Predict the structure.
Amino acid sequence: MNSLPANNPEWLTKKIIKDGGTISFYDYMDLVLNDPNNGYYGSGKATLGPKGDFVTSSSMSDDFAFLLSRQIDEWLIQVKSKLIYEEKLSILEFGAGDGSFMSGLFQYLFINNKKILKNVCFIIVEPNKGMIKKQQKKLEKYLKLGVEILWKSLEELEDKSLNGIILANEVLDALPVERIINLKGKLYRQGVSIDNESGKLFFKELNLTKELEKSLTLAHEKLDINIPPKDAPEGWTTEWHIDNKSWLKSVYEKINNGILLVIDYAKEAKRYYSLCNSNGTLISYKNQKIVENVFEAPGDCDLTSHVCIESLIYDSETLGFETLGIVKQGEALLSLGLAERLFEIQNELKNDISTALFRREALLRLVDPICLGDFKWFVFSKFNKKIKINTSCIR
Ligand SMILES: C[S@@+](CC[C@H](N)C(=O)[O-])C[C@H]1O[C@@H](n2cnc3c(N)ncnc32)[C@H](O)[C@@H]1O
């Protein structure tokens, strides 16, 4: 994959030229996703859900939020009672997309634990203004009902100010990544450049930065991850998640007592950095279809990559998080009552077969291993005293 046909918009050409004609792949991904005027999320162009470009679990139907809310409710009650905590707790969601999860959480709490609403402050950390607008629109009804929802940047939160639950569903897979390529026995950082004649984007090799070299050495020493793997062919390429550790660190610093749930596409290191996986996991979605060419329609489609399981756990634990468990989404949702939910839907919607079928199909996709069921739920905790937390999603 060196030079690929691309629809290279003017705004991007200008940025690349302004930066000297070549930018790192990391900067390219950051621009096409987060540029405030033209980025997919930055400008708010992203459309999630069955009628959008791609589905996330929360945007598919409210049943995902219903089941996950059971878990959040269970954790909140324990955090409050075991810490004998009198002040307000927080539920913080990173990267809330179009606001579907929060909206589903409120629906659940209004029906099942209305009392708790007064004792919880809801926070969304969303860097993209375009997405904040979508979230505010979706949650307008609850804001009018007086529910406290705050949109904040992480920097605005004081250190050790969070007591409660922190959720990041499909957020780490949207953080920009570096791409590393093996060429003639040497590793390079992939950059993105523009062909002068055709105006098309192409990959251009750059030297590894000191930061990347350090990060690769650490992964080798601590996790036995070899980049490239032994006998890697010419052109073997992988993503490298250079931001995960600093993201986890900034979250860790804000928590006083709490549980962090990260949900994402994830692969074990031995499968991720293997000979079989010779071009990483980077993928783009448009109109519910996979777009293989990562230079196609920059700023008009999603760009996403899997996280590495061992690296995420290592980074979390070295910061001080305790890993309460890791479970596949399919298993987690079954433990939280997905089968009963299916039964309830059939009974509730006896006279509305098409809605019942739609919701049934959505629930099944959430547990289907070749669909969203293979996502991993990583449950980490940070408490300043030893307490035992029951976690129904992990059996
Ligand atoms: C794939 S969407 C996930 C949407 C949502 N969590 C859901 O379940 O439907 C990625 C979201 O993460 C946001 N995002 C991107 N970078 C972020 C960051 N550094 N911190 C928090 N959110 C971020 C995007 O703007 C977008 O809202």
About this structure: Residues 325-378 form one domain. The first helix runs from residue 10 to 18. Residues 41, 48, 56, 58-59, 94-97, 100-101, 125-128, 131, 169-171, 174-175 surround S-adenosylmethionine (CB under 6 Å). DSSP finds 14 helices and 17 strands in the chain.
